[in-house]
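Can anyone check this?
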Amino acid sequence: MTSRLTVEGERPNPVAIARNDRSTAKPREISSRSANVSDGAVIPRPLGVNPLLTISALAERCCALLAQDRGATIDYTLPSVPPAPAAPRALGIQFSGTMKGYLSAWVTGDYQAAADRGKADDSRFEFTLTIISDDLDRMLADPMHQARLIGTVKAPALSPDPIT
């Protein structure tokens, strides 16, 4: 699709109308104090396959010259500059374990007797724990290092639903 740009009128604010060569396309109006168009047509002959970068460089040069003529500057810093690399993260650790057995609310003084009574009453007890530490070296070196503990308890004698 090709377009042509015409400037209509000798007003202080001329209106530039870009008309597409397709008969179904509507003209677009560009109104400004001065319309500057930078196009690949300034190149006198074909450049070869895909002259995108050459035409882009020429358009950028035109913008720089227009800015210089008007006393403006162009900020070329990119907003997409990657952030400075973050400090290396410490090696963490996470492990889980499940224990299963029986629970008795009636026998409390003797572990084996409580287990036998819970088994006889079919009072199952199960818990799964996950221990998480964000710094393995600190966890091994410092006995006071705190790790996170999450888990679930399944004990129908205490609650019909798992306890978290």
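Reply from J.R.: I decoded it. The chain has a mean pLDDT of 79.
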